[in-house]
Amino acid sequence: MPEPSPESGRDIATALADDEHRHALTPASAGVMAGGVLSGPETERIRRKGLGIGGWLCVAWLIVILFMAFFGSKIPGIPDPVNDVTTPRLGWGASGHPFGTDGQGRDVLSLIVNGTYNSMYIGIVSVFFGLVVGGFLGIVAGYFKGAVGGVLGGMTDILLAYPQLVLALSVVTFLGNSVFWVTVALAIVSVPVLARISRASTLSWSEREFVLAARAQGAKHGRVMLREIFPNVLPAMLSIALLGVAVVIVAEAGLAIIGAGVNPEKITWGNTIQSGITDLTDAPNIVLAPSFVIFITVMALNFLGDVLRAKFDVRESAL
Amino acid sequence: MRTFALKLGRLVFVLIIVTFLSFWMLKLQKQDIVSTVAPNATRAEQERLRADIGLKDPFFTQYWHWVTHFVQGDFGKTYTGAGAHVTGVPVSDSLWKRLPVSLELMLYAQILALAIAIPLGVLTAYRNGTMFDRLSNVLAFAMLAMPAFLAALLLVIYVAAQWHVWDLPTQYSGVGDFPLNPFTSENWKQLLLPTISLAVAQIAIYMRLLRSDMIATLQEDFITTAKAKGIPARRVLFRHALRPSSLTLLTVAGLNVGALIGGALVVERIFNLPGIGGRLAEAILGKQVIEVQALVAVIAIIYVLVNFFVDLLYTVLDPRIRHARAIA
Lengths: 319, 328
What we know:
The complex is a heterodimer of chains A (about 325) and B (about 325).
Chain A lengths: L8 H25 L6 H9 L3 H20 L36 H36 L3 H14 L3 H12 L3 H27 L3 H8 L4 H38 L10 H8 L8 H27 L8
Chain B lengths: L1 H26 L5 H5 L5 H11 L5 H13 L5 E4 L6 E4 H36 L4 H15 L2 H15 L22 H34 L2 H8 L4 H39 L4 H10 L3 H29 L1 H9 L1
Antiparallel strand pairs in B: 1-2
């Protein structure tokens, strides 16, 4: 088919379609992390009232988690995971060991409590890094649409061309399996996701009148980005970051199960699951207890992320 | 045609970068590569391996050597043995036998997830706000938070080991004899539980997405028109309203392949399936970094290709892009 004037009418339509495509693309990267969970009326209710019982339960759970992370074995009744070793593979509800013991006789509850620090550290630090770097790149890319945006967009696209877990796994394998490198690996993975979200959000805000007004008053680009756009993009980024922490916690466990997780001598939730993988039939409690803790934590983070999104009216289309 | 050429150009560019990154990542390793893959070999043997792999060449020569061999299906070797005799087995040997298992598992999971999510998504959108909608909302919320490994562990421990509802996959010693044919019951016996555990989270993602998309579509004028014409509700829902949402669903399904790959690696490990995930775990354990590099590159390339085809399909399906072509 001959193409008489490739530049004329075509571009408006494809630009539209491309734009649409991009919108469809972005909830997906969020969708990979977690889709919107609350329904319309639910969202409405949250905006009007507050967290509700579910929300407060989630907050309470996260406080328990943080408490566990900070105090570990100092909490009374929690044995030391390394020194207090007893009969291996005790089941649920054994006396003194409510979650039983693992293959080496370590108390599973104590492993969970003491693993919280590392797991949460990996989750929070890597997502924070992703938030800072990805947010910066995304806002710059969305604000300067032309060449800068194209180059930055291309860079994030290439990082997104790797399946997340596979990218993290190779970083850990080649660079080392300390808590530091696992955190770095998962931070690298979260950068493009957060960059993409903040870019899409910036695109929708940078067209608004108040941005134009700020420019007209002579504000420099840096100031406009920091003072006008950043505060508006932040809620969307924070809600995705909450989901991101959940994803990273799951990824840490996944890496541990594949054998590319944190050094097995360190206690994390993932390593506790990994240590019980060979005892699935004899002592399912070893793998199930930490898995359920991860499950509940992910649920709490997802819920709060959604609440945040509803509160600040982060429209799905802007994501 | 022009958009296709552009997309193809971008594909080639991304492939070059992805292979380069995969290659470069191994070079970032602090330890010497040969002493990592064959730590117990003699010095002379290590020297021989170093020359054999081509580690003495300049960086870009090495990359070129690696890429050209890679394209021809030579992914490097995995090394066994010690002392003066280290033997290298080509990575491709096990790769070609294991890759189909992983791909089949992911395909099944994707099909199962869509088959359950589409009707549920349409129905919840149609019955928006009812008891049924709320119940599936809560269920989806829980499913969304459930990592694939938890679903897999629950299925292994309860359904297979304790209740004996379904047999665990048999352990295949030789990966070649895995029953790949989807029309055999043996194939289903092996893959049903892994498929379910992979599909759980996907079902929730697709369902939520389709629901919110459809609720918006159902308020459009053409739906009212269709209803006014007396077309039965089922036809309006599945023929008229589902069509515009299918594009979003397709894109997300394509992008989700990345999450699916990650999930499949973990699930394979739990079920001991002879797929790529199992091999990858063994390679990591045995410090066969060259093999890890090759497998990572293969997985990344597959992912890039899948997204390329989804993108193409998208262009074909979206009427506005078709029209755009007609205008041009």
